[in-house]
Specification:
The complex is a heterodimer. By secondary structure, chain A is mainly alpha-helical. Chain A has 7 helices and 2 strands; from the N terminus they run βααααβααα. The longest helix of chain A is centred in the N-terminal third of the chain and has 23 residues. Chain B is α+β, with helices and mostly antiparallel strands. Classes of the chains: A mainly alpha, B alpha+beta.
Amino acid sequence: MTTTKPTLAAKPGQKGIDPRSPRFGAGITAVLLLVVVGLGLVTPFGATVAQRATEPGFILFALIWALFGWGAFAGVQRHPYGAIYRALIRPRLAPPTELEDPVPPTFAQGVGFAITLIGIVLHLAGVPYALVVAAGAAFVAAFLNSVFAYCLGCQIYLLLVRAGILGRKGAATA
Amino acid sequence: MNPVAVVGVLVGLVAVATVIGLVWRSQQGRIHHTRGTTTVKVGDVPGMRRFARGATFLQFSTEVCAPCKVTRDVLGAVASEHSNVAHVDVDLTHRPDLASQFHIMQTPTTLILDSKGVVRARIGGAPRRDAVRAELDRILIAA
């Protein structure tokens, strides 16, 4: 029986990651975001900032935002969900057939961080349903990533390149 | 909102997300035959001097793109099976103008060109090896 080493898809000098790990994390995030949507719908909209800041849906949402930030700035390799995956899930699965570059999932954490931040700001500012809509949108993205392996980070990156916000101009653009 | 309605909204949200996912997945890697009305000029493609005598796989990628690597492997492997087929991978991260010029809305996007640079097929997402081979045969035989 021969064992093939998984293909390292990451850039030289950077370790590849098990591609199932970010999808596992996205699954946890999707479930939590669904809880936020539910809590946001049953909780009466608070009249003061203090009320809105202390409702359970918002607190959970802020926790999710902090986790996105952790993944975006420390990298998905150092995300707590990754640690859970490595400790509990991966030992029960066959080794990955391919390793993937950690940059796209890390970028996707940054996208999640930005979307949830907008929801947090709008909710605290008093916009009705801002929490529910932001959590719903983030849920769809996390769900698609977890269940269908859709790389939203890849899509957003391209759109940002087309808008000229990311990427570099080549030698000849004329 | 009463709890029953909330459950309804949550179920609806999951259902909508599932439909979006299924539709997206069905479109990925699908080979669209183009009417042959678009022609790529050699000068449009960085690093290209002439088109291959058989066909050219023109792949558009970005730096942050997991499926692009899979596509690179598939197209590179199929191209290496023929002496007259080339594979070119353009990094849009450095050439956003090409993204507008070729209407690239997702990466990877692959255009299959014939020997004159006419776009014969367009593939969004990572294609399957056997589908690419079949499409390539169609183009090479008709040439």
